[in-house]
């Protein structure tokens, strides 16, 4: 079981700079991958997207590539020989016209672009990709590891809450067993208070109690609820993504609890159902973050 939230980062050298790759994730129903690259590296987007998509099945994943200058280092310098030759010719003409020597400086050469610091974003794409891929893999591994760790924490929480729902189920069954008996007692008391006492073996009383008992019977709901809880626990142990399946089971559990509450016709049982639904809602909130 993996969480859909996580973070991973890694850095790789690139000339006089470095590439930092950051990967973060949040929950989404489907897989969404957003890649942020320097414009000159756009050719890498498909490879990056495919690499991440192979490791992630759900959630929004943001992948950022950041070009950073390494402190204390300088980029390689390049010399534009064509510009230098043109400048030399221009200076010779100027000196001939002025009749004196014209001085140049390194600052002038830099401003004219004759000497420039090499820009890593303009390196061959193969060179950039060779440096970026290991960083992407390392960041992705860290991202997946953190998602797995969070998933284990969520799994423990979910299983504890499922156990709480089991306890509610036992209480619901115990309370439901006496609903028909309590209804019979209330019915006989009302008849007696109205001056219309009837013996307990009266056919009309027996028929009324039988109909009521059938109407408020929740044994089928409790059986299905037990099955759903068992399935939930088994699915939590699977290695593949289980978020969608657990979300479906939460809907089924809610349906059984809702039907139980509507059929029971008992205030205390209805209150137990409300409390169980509250616990189920906490489970559903957690499930929304599971891949």
Would you give an account of this structure?
There is one protein chain. With about 290 residues, this protein is of the alpha+beta class. It has three domains: about 5-70 and about 125-145, Ribosomal Protein S5, domain 2, CATH 3.30.230; about 80-115, no CATH class; about 150-285, Four Helix Bundle (Hemerythrin (Met), subunit A), CATH 1.20.120. About 60% of the residues lie in helices and about 15% in strands. It has nine helices and six strands. It has helices at about 45-55, 80-100, 105-110, 125-175, 180-195, 205-215, 220-235, 245-265, 265-285, and strands at about 5-15, 15-25, 30-35, 60-70, 75-80, 115. The strands form two sheets. It has a four-stranded mixed sheet with strand order 1-2-4-3. Strand 3, helix 1 and strand 4 form a beta-alpha-beta unit. Helix 4 runs antiparallel to helix 7 (about 220-235), helix 4 (about 125-175) runs antiparallel to helix 9 and helix 8 (about 245-265) runs antiparallel to helix 9. The longest helix is centred in the middle third of the chain and has 53 residues, at about 125-175. The protein starts with 5 loop residues before the first strand and ends with a helix. The model has no long low-confidence stretch (mean pLDDT about 80).
Can you tag this structure with a few keywords?
291 residues; alpha+beta; Ribosomal Protein S5, domain 2; Four Helix Bundle (Hemerythrin (Met), subunit A); four-stranded mixed β-sheet; two-stranded antiparallel ribbon; 9 helices
